[in-house]
Amino acid sequence: MPTAYNDGFLQLWPTTLLQRTLPGHERANPALGALIEQLEAGNKDLTTDYLDDNLMTNEHPALQWLKDCVNKTVIDYLHRQGLDYPVNWSLHGWANINRFGDYHDLHNHPHSYLSGTYYVATPDQETEAGSRNDLSPGAISFYDPRPQANMNAIRGDAQVSPQYTLHPAPGMILMWPSFLHHLVHPNLSRQKRISISFNVVLKWSDDYLPPQN
Asked: Each residue of 61-79: pLDDT tens digit?
């Protein structure tokens, strides 16, 4: 739904990215990190086999805390979008451990409504970054979903900024529409970057259908 302004301007086709820090992460993250490393010890392909298991079904107390936080964040996101009817969903989650040089290529998340990542551990320093000055080690970048929207870009116009990049910190949760393309830049630190990604998969209802004109 367009957002109206009193002076006649409308904000059309917005893309909402949620970024916040979860209270209580200082206690939960050490337990989450230990659990993820334990799981990886039994499955060396833990990060790439994200479809084979659902981390959100694990009954570990720290994961139950995170699941509750994600569900609360989904509710806040839906309210921010102005949805005033019941929406039901399930969560599918997986762990990521990124070592030196590891990255995630440009992608989006088909067959889900919202996607997100929670950061358990991030390197506190970058090393061996080389001589280039355009690197963003360990960052995540999101890209304008409108094809060719930047064709007439001029400096300072936020409507046509093609890329948004941020450097996550432990305890941060991000949530965005699943259609949004994003990538995770290479980790150039010898320290691990540990995160938990998730998809919000809607349980279908005909109530979701827009009114027919």
From this structure: 999 999 999 999 999 999 9
